[in-house]
Design a protein that fits this description.
61 residues; mainly alpha; 3 helices; rod-shaped; transmembrane helix; membrane; transmembrane
Length: 61
């Protein structure tokens, strides 16, 4: 499940931007970008759980 969290957080960040930016309230833009930045940080963190196919091929030799 952890290997899919990168894609999930990237999609979540895109959805937050699509929904949050058209709303024209005070602080909405700052909150939207902050939430998107947090999603991107989590997406970058969970990239370590994506399997490396190139590394698997080298270990089998």
């Amino acid at each position: 499940m952890k290997r899919y969290l990168t894609a999930i957080f990237l999609l979540l960040g895109a959805i937050i931007l699509i929904i949050g930016l058209p709303i024209d309230l005070q602080w909405t833009g700052a909150v939207t970008w902050l939430l998107t930045l947090i999603c991107l940080i989590f997406a970058a963190y969970f990239t370590k759980y994506i399997p490396d196919k190139d590394n698997e091929k080298n270990s089998r030799k």
